[in-house]
Design goal:
Helices cover 16% and strands 24% of the residues. It is an alpha+beta fold. The longest helix has 15 residues.
């Protein structure tokens, strides 16, 4: 599930398309393509706010244009997808049979496992006289 990021400007609910980063040491604003992950000290901007961005007096704005070729899947992406499909199509090896008298895992929830007692009857009650 992917949640679309929205513009960081107050009262703007449009989808973000660019990421703004301030480089204080160089008095520079860098506006580039939307970052892969939201960073705490960066600002995501919609197309309108990115286009109208101005820097404080004495600051420089560097606008990094996105590479149009990078927007589509790369050869590496397609090869990884093909390998994943091939792996999914391979038959699973047969599950090993438990040794006689060994506990058998019935179910798992998180890190906890439920094991069936090898001496228990199928109804779950042990035969004790």
């Amino acid at each position: 599930m992917s949640i679309a990021r929205i513009c960081s400007r107050a009262a703007c609910h449009r989808p973000a398309v660019s990421t703004l980063t301030y480089v204080y040491a160089d008095s520079t604003c860098v506006l580039g393509p939307l970052a892969t992950y939201a960073e705490p000290h960066c600002y995501d901007l919609c197309a309108d706010h990115a286009e109208r961005l101005t820097a404080p007096n004495g600051w420089e704005v560097i606008r990094l244009a996105p590479d149009p070729a990078a927007s589509g899947p790369s050869d590496d992406d397609l090869e990884a997808l093909a390998n994943a499909v091939r792996d999914a199509a391979r038959p699973l090896p047969p599950a090993p049979q438990p040794a006689p008298g060994a506990s058998v895992e019935v179910t798992r929830r998180g890190h906890l496992r439920v094991l069936r007692d090898p001496d228990a009857s199928p109804s779950g009650h042990t035969d004790q006289g």
